[in-house]
Structures are given as C-alpha cells and as structure tokens.
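Worked example 3. Consider a protein that binds S-adenosylmethionine.
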Amino acid sequence: MPESSIVVQPDQPGSASYLPSARLDTAGLPRAVALFEQAARAVPLYTPPQPIVIADYGAATGYNSMLPIGAAIDAIRERTRVEHAIMVAHTDLPDNDFSALFHTLAEDTDSYLQKDTATFSAAVGRSFYDQILPSNAVTLGWTSWAVMWLRTIPTEVRDHVFVAYSTDDTARAAYARQAASDWQNFLAFRGRELRPGGRLVVLTAAVDDDGEYGYQPLVGAILAALHDLIGTTLISAEEVRRMTIPIVVRSEKDLRAPFAPHDRFEGLAVEHLEVFDAGDRFWAQYQREHDAAAFGRQWAAFARASLFPALFAGLDGGRGDPRVTELADRLEQSVAASLADAPQQVRIPLAAVVMVKRQPTD
Ligand SMILES: C[S@@+](CC[C@H](N)C(=O)[O-])C[C@H]1O[C@@H](n2cnc3c(N)ncnc32)[C@H](O)[C@@H]1O
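Given these inputs, the predicted complex is written out as structure tokens:
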C-alpha cells in the first residue's frame, strides 16, 4: 500500500469556527515553531550569492507550514541582508495535492512569498524515506505530523485499527521494527542533506512517560463504528480486519535509539527532545460551551479527513471503492454520535526533537 496522505490542520479561514488564533492551535505547533525559530538563530549561514535552503518534509497543502517557515525566515532575516536569497523546498509524496500547496504559497496571507521578496519556493514529490535533496545543501529542516506515517504496512493488525492498542504481540513487534527502520532511514538521509551546523526540527506522535499512546476515545469510536457496520452491505468482516491506520507513536527511547551509544548518527546529534501533551482544542471548546454534539462533530470530521483514507485502503476496491462515500458518511455520523454521547478529552502526546549536524571541528 502506498503511504497515506492526510491533512491535519485547524479550521480554515471562512469556516464558522475559525478564529485568527486557531492557526497556531494546531496540535503542538506553537512549541515546535519556537524551537524552529531558535534553530534559525543558531545555524551557520552561507554568504551570498549562495542561497539559504530550508526544507519542509511532508508539507501536504502547506497550510500548516506557513507559520513555521515564516518564523524561521524572520529569524534568518535578523542576520542577513534582505536580498540574500532563501529557497524553501516543500516535499511530500507524489500523490500529494501539490496544486493546493502552490495555491497556499500564492494566496495565503501568511505565506512567506507575500512577505519576503528574496524567498523562493520549490516542491519535491518523493518520499522522505529516500534522499531527496542534494547532500550538504539544507540549512534548516522542518517536519510536523509526518514521520509517524510508516513507509509501508508491515503486517495485519487483526484486533484494532491502531496498532498501539492491539493485543497482538507479533503485530506490535512488526510495527516496532518498521518504525525503527523508517526513523533510521529518515534520519540518515536528512543527515546527508543537512549542511554542517544545520538543524532539523521534528514534531511527531509520541508515547509519554506514563505509557499514554493518545487518541483512545477517537480510535475506540472508529473501531466500534466499523464493527457495527459489519453485516450491512457496506463492509465485510474481512475488510474490517484488513483496515489499519499505519501510524506509530514513538517513545523518547525509540527516538534516541539510532544515536546510541555515542550520541551521534549519520553526523546528527540530538540537541533537544521533549515529549508533551498538545492539548485537545475541541475538548477545551466543549468545556467552555458544553456543546457535546459539536465536540463529536469536530473529532469525527477530523477523523474523516485524516484517518478514514488510510482505513479505506483495506476495502476490496481500495480507496477508489464505490462504497467509500457512503461508508465515510456512516462512519463519520457514528463516530460523532458516540463521542457526543460520552465526551472525553483526547490525549495527544507529541515529541519535538531538534537535531544538529555536527561540524567537522566538533
Ligand atoms: C498530517 S500531514 C502533515 C502536514 C503538515 N506538515 C502539518 O503539520 O499539518 C502528513 C503529510 O506527510 C506526508 N507523508 C507521509 N509519508 C510521507 C513520506 N514517506 N514522504 C513524504 N511525505 C510523507 C503525507 O502525504 C501528508 O501530506
């Protein structure tokens, strides 16, 4: 199965619940943006006419990239002349909607292209589990909500859609092996692409020190909704069994593993690593407004946009199966109703990691 393509973003401008501050509410983004800004202040910069290259790995529509990349550009501009060229490479899988990305870059009021005339953008449609930019070219790398998606589904998870909650030890072990190998590959290629002294900031799903994997009420509601539909003409038990969301949550130990025992891997060293709970903004709204239906609706809409496409790969006809729209409608309604019936906070443990590529003198 090809890797999944999903979009996690706060309410879009124009939607009923949009607030200007909503953009930075995207889970975990403010913390990671602050780290990216610090990184932009610390990296060695080329002298002109060499451009400064920033890479955005797993950009999707680019909507959630505008603030981090813009913050880094602002920090760099405190150290350069205004005409020193900055090149931003937005990368994603070949099937990503790159037209949407180019529209974001051209039209979004937060787009760096609208603010800084010496910035330029390019797009790369290749998996970040390979080398996709030239060696020693990238000064700053950014990736949010992307490296949790595995390169491939390692095996079936028979009892759950989310391996973290499976009781199948064999499946858990296969996912853990795939996750370890994907993380090593991701780092190895970024280690090549970064310039000495360059920094990479990663925001990704994590398991916290208490063993909290997160998303439990949501994935529980999805699993229950799928089981309720078995026996209807919409889905078979066999298809439900094949359905999985190929996301992994990594512990601090998993994230540090490639760096053992000498604190370096492919020229990279971990400069900062924190695991934190990003906070459930739909829950915060529910606590203010006590609107359980809205709480259910918001999480169900998120699940439809972000998680259902991965599940539908398990249908006999894959994501193009003619039942997809009706199934998505039914699942969304059912997930919304069950979350509205018993609203519970969704925990979102995340890790923010800053890595630096060592300089030859280090
Ligand atoms: C949830 S979106 C995150 C988008 C954005 N970075 C954000 O923070 O909202 C995950 C993105 O990662 C991309 N992605 C997943 N696996 C990838 C891979 N192997 N190579 C490149 N992009 C990948 C997906 O296609 C998707 O666009």
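Take a moment to read the result before moving on. The chain has a mean pLDDT of 91. The longest strand covers residues 194-205.
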